[in-house]
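Lay summary. Proteins are chains of building blocks that fold into shapes, and those shapes determine what they do. In this project we predict the shape from the chain. Here is one chain we studied, written as its sequence of building blocks.
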Amino acid sequence: MRIMAVMIFAAAAAMPIAAEAASVGELFQQFKLFGTWAPDCGQPASPANVRVTITTPSAGQVLEDHDLGSGFAVNRYSMLSAERLSDERLSVETILQPGNDAEDHERLIFLVRGPTRRTMFNQPDGGAVRVKGGIALPGGSKTPVLRKCE
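And here is the predicted shape, written in a compact code that computers can read:
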């Protein structure tokens, strides 16, 4: 029995230690998400041309601001966690409007292909799915493809 325990311990010690998971900031950097995005970078922000700006104002903090143009409040997302699903897909847990009475925890999945990004999934905690397969529900419209502006 003791020999078996020593063999198991030796085998476990020889196993490689799992790599520590990448932070939100590291994953956003790997996916080249920091900067400004819009469907049309040459046009001003509007409901049809949302400008998304992703920043890291302090260590460990990643913020995403959605500007819909004058007359609209900026929607701010604070990224809580992120997980690489594939070379092109990133899942994020967020707080929409952190510190506000309208604060909402959401899960999103982004499709990132080179200089483009698209929301493929969105669901608030305990709520109905808002986006599935890149289609906004219940209306059925496609989520916009955002292009990297800077």
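What the prediction tells us: The chain has a mean pLDDT of 88.
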